[in-house]
Amino acid sequence: MKAMRLLVFLAVTASCSLVDFSPAEDVKSNPSSENQILSEEERIQVSFSFEPDRNSAESLFSVRDYSGDIDGDITWEGKRMYFSPSEKLVRGRRYTLCFSGDVEKKDGGSARVELLVPFFYISSNVGVPWITGINPHPGSVMDREEAVTVSFSESIDTGSFKKGFSISPDREHTLIWEEGDSRVVITPNEKWENLTSYCFSFSTDICGLDAIPLEEEYRFTVYVDSSHVNPFIVSTETAMRDLASSFPPLSPDLNSIKYNDAVRIVFSEDMNTEKVDAAFSIDPYIAGRNFWIDNRTLIFLPDKFWKWETLYRITINTSAESESGIKLAGEYMEEFAPDINELYLSTLDGKAGDGFPVNSFSDSSYIEIETDPAAPYTYTFTLTFSEIFASNAEKVNAQDSLNISCIFPPNGISPFPVMYSWLSDTALTVKYSGFTPYDTAGNIYYYYLLKIKGGEAGIINSSGSYLSGDIKQLLRTK
Fold first, then answer.
1. pLDDT per position as a tens digit, 175-213
2. Rg of the Cα atoms in the chain
């Protein structure tokens, strides 16, 4: 029942009312929900409840697919911005609408907007063909007579394959289709040239039987060498934390890894998985599990999550060997730091007459606050953070990480929260009740410590951003 705290006052007064925890609805988009299917008739758009500076808004906007930003034109109708792609979007392809940053308002000020909306065009990726397997593995070594086999998720229009497939350097070859035209065997008419790298390319001209094109362009390279070679690591990639989809790769740069991503390591040869597991390590240690998609693809999935501002080193020593007993050519090491933003408290706000807002905090220098003049002596604070708290669970955790306690006099009573309200995904307003004002008769001041718990056990969002340490601010009532 903990999540219910997002819906009601914690409160203590005789009359209760609902609290609005929804963020300020300043900006809306279409598509608006994750993995929404955009119909052919719908237009990509972003609408504003205020009058934005158009140049500012346009600079923050993009639509992307696997290859990068999509070219197109932006037009306006009042406060609504429309995007028209230069070329028609591809049916079944996954795109992402991005709008991120501070958009300036014509009447002054700015609004922070964070939109990242993946969507599909006309249909989901069900039925969209993609490459599910390649043998020999990309980056590996093959002999001069070896065939290359490529498997697809769907049956392929073989005519479109001839148009969209190429080998560089060019080599005459024969295509043999198997498994209902979902697997093709590529055999050289003459032997491959020895000591040569061949690049196999698959463009989006390749389509399934219902004319849906390949999910994305793809190319891989294999090297022809008739002699035996040591196995080596072809690539390391960040990978989606999705076992059901075999941990699809996200980026070849491990420094782009997010706090809950997996690491994908591809070898040039079929490996002895037990010996590779024994040779594999990460420093500093992070608990996790190894999964093998096949004998050339190792996935490391951390049990918990990568830590912010930590440099990790992957090591695979030379005890790792292939199935044929050939050891790794040399010890492999790679360092990376997760792409996780620091979380910090941008401002603490209260009554302007009390010296707020402040952006530096002290547990030894007090801020004097003037509570409401009558019992129960309430005071309202607004906390603005550098990163967003998108879900209710994150917001509840943020609320639970905040505490105010009376530290003097020793018998003083600590105030308690009676209302939480999220003005946006970065701004929390909280009202505390039960402060004790200055005791004129006894000449007693009351001191309080506002504390926000930091570290991994404290305030944290779904992107892994957390405070590096506790935030403390000393308060004194007037």
1. 999 999 999 999 999 999 998 999 999 998 999 888 888
2. 29
* 298 and 316 Cβ atoms separated by less than 8 Å: no
End-to-end CA distance of the chain: 37
Q: Which residue has the tokens 């362009």?
A: 217
Tell me: the pLDDT tens digits for 302-360? Answer: 998 898 889 999 999 988 988 877 778 778 999 999 999 889 999 999 998 999 999 99
Range 389-395 average pLDDT: 92
Set out the domains of the chain in order of their start, with CATH numbers. Answer: 2-15+342-477 (2.60.40.3710), 31-121 (2.60.40.3710), 131-224 (2.60.40.3710), 233-336 (2.60.40.3710)
pTM above 0.70, yes or no: no
Nearest Cα to Cα of residue 452 among 476, 468, 432, 431 = 468
Mean pLDDT of the chain: 89
Range of weakest confidence among 270-274, 319-323, 413-417 = 319-323
CB-side neighbour CA atoms (13 Å) of 377 = 15
In angstroms, rounded to a whole number, what is the distance separating the alpha carbons of residues 261 and 247? 9
Q: Cα dihedral angle (28, 126, 250, 165), rounded to 10 degrees? A: -120
Does the pLDDT value for residue 1 go beyond 50?
no
| Parallel, antiparallel or unpaired: strands 218-224 and 36-38 | unpaired
Confidence class for position 392, pLDDT limits 50, 70, 90: very high
Of 349, 362, 251, 239, which Cα lies nearest the Cα of 301?
A: 239
Residue among 151, 271, 148, 294 nearest 221 (CA): 148
68-102, pLDDT tens digit by residue?
889 999 999 999 999 999 999 988 888 899 998 89
Residue 409: band (very low, low, confident or very high) from pLDDT cuts 50, 70, 90: very high
Neighbours of 40 (CB within 10 A): 9
- Residue 126 pLDDT: 65
In whole angstroms, what is the distance from residue 301 CA to residue 307 CA?
14
